[in-house]
Design goal:
The chain is an alpha/beta fold and about 325 residues long. It has helices spanning about 5-10, 15-25, 30, 40-45, 50-60, 90-105, 105-115, 125-150, 170-175, 190-200, 240-250, 275-285, 295-305, and strands spanning about 65-70, 70-75, 160-165, 180-185, 210, 225-230, 250-260, 265, 290-295, 305-315, 320-325.
């Protein structure tokens, strides 16, 4: 039996998201992390509307992210994850979601008229936003990277090429899992500095080479026997992926393998559900990005000259793995 209340709860879910995003954009969670304050005092110090400030704070109380006692507000333990002062803060990721709020608001227009053909390759963001986003991705992705590294047999490999490797989350996990492995992190110059800091903090600097570059325009470092594309192919069109796969095949040693981590859709393109939703995220944020079925990934890899394409791990959390061999 259809339950209208449940349907309406889904339709209204954007309201809860909007309150959290506004709280993050105004940095309420950081400001109230250790120092309780009244709504009027916060509004005065930040030049905000007092009534609107109070209503947002009160609603954040109902969501369990801020607590209120005798008119004083303070961030709860759960809410501190939205504070910039928390060592595992998700604030940069939430601020990225604020950007997505704007792009997702164009979904209806895109369905009517199609994506913007002038959109830059990849997911557009400023350098500052990219750094914050990558920092948040590291905090969020640490557990999954270790899980992936433990699930995939890394023992045959000597040298990893982590393409678009961000701050080195997966390089760290792979090298910790295989003590004989060395690595190359290839990413934009502004990202490489973040990767170097992470790698040094993990004591792995002697095993990692850092190469700045843009995989859309530059050639890839040669000589590795394993190339990793972690959460990369969804931001590309099939044509962009074909070009990237071709670069990877040319960079790998003969018999080397490429390992792709991403959503891999079933033939109906409705499972996993998170992948179907993520396809829309790519629709509104990229020129040609998408989530792909295994057959689509396999076909493009084979066009680029790879063989023995396999789906070696299924998952619901962008944790599917596709492996292919270079010849």
């Amino acid at each position: 039996m259809v339950q209208p209340d449940l349907l309406m709860a889904d339709a209204r879910a954007f309201m809860k998201s909007r309150v959290i995003l506004t709280g993050a954009q105004l940095d309420f969670f950081t400001k109230l992390h250790d120092t309780p304050n009244t709504a009027d005092e916060m509004a005065g110090a930040m030049k905000l509307d007092p009534r609107a400030t109070t209503r947002v704070l009160d609603t954040l109380v109902t969501l369990g992210l801020i607590e209120k006692e005798n008119g004083l507000y303070r961030t709860t333990e759960e809410g501190t994850l939205f504070s910039s002062r928390h060592p595992q803060t998700v604030l940069p990721m939430v601020l990225h979601l604020s950007h997505l709020w704007e792009t997702w608001s164009r979904l209806t227009d895109i369905v009517k008229g199609g994506p913007n053909p002038e959109q830059e390759p990849g997911v557009g963001m400023s350098e500052e936003s990219r750094k914050s986003f990558i920092g948040a991705m590291h905090a969020i992705g640490h557990g999954l990277s270790m899980e992936i590294a433990g699930d995939y047999d890394l023992s045959p490999f000597k040298r990893l090429l982590d393409i678009g490797g961000g701050s080195g989350t997966y390089t760290i996990a792979f090298l910790k899992t295989n003590p004989r492995m060395t690595g190359v992190i290839f990413d934009l110059q502004s990202v490489i500095s973040m990767a170097r800091e992470r790698i040094e903090a993990e004591g792995l600097e002697g095993r990692v080479e850092f190469v700045p570059g843009d995989f859309y325009g530059d050639e890839l470092p040669k000589g590795c026997d394993l190339a990793l594309l972690s959460a990369i192919i969804h931001q590309n069109s099939p044509e962009e992926n074909l070009e990237l796969y071709s670069k990877i095949r040319q960079a790998l040693v003969p018999g080397g393998k490429v390992l792709i981590r991403d959503h891999v859709m079933d033939e109906s393109r409705t499972a996993p559900p998170a992948g179907a939703m993520f396809a829309l995220n790519m629709l509104v944020n990229t020129r040609g990005g998408d989530t792909y079925t295994f057959d689509e990934v396999k076909e493009t890899l084979e066009k680029a000259g790879f063989v023995d394409v396999k789906l070696v791990r299924k998952g619901e959390r962008m944790d599917c793995l596709v492996e292919a061999t270079s010849v």
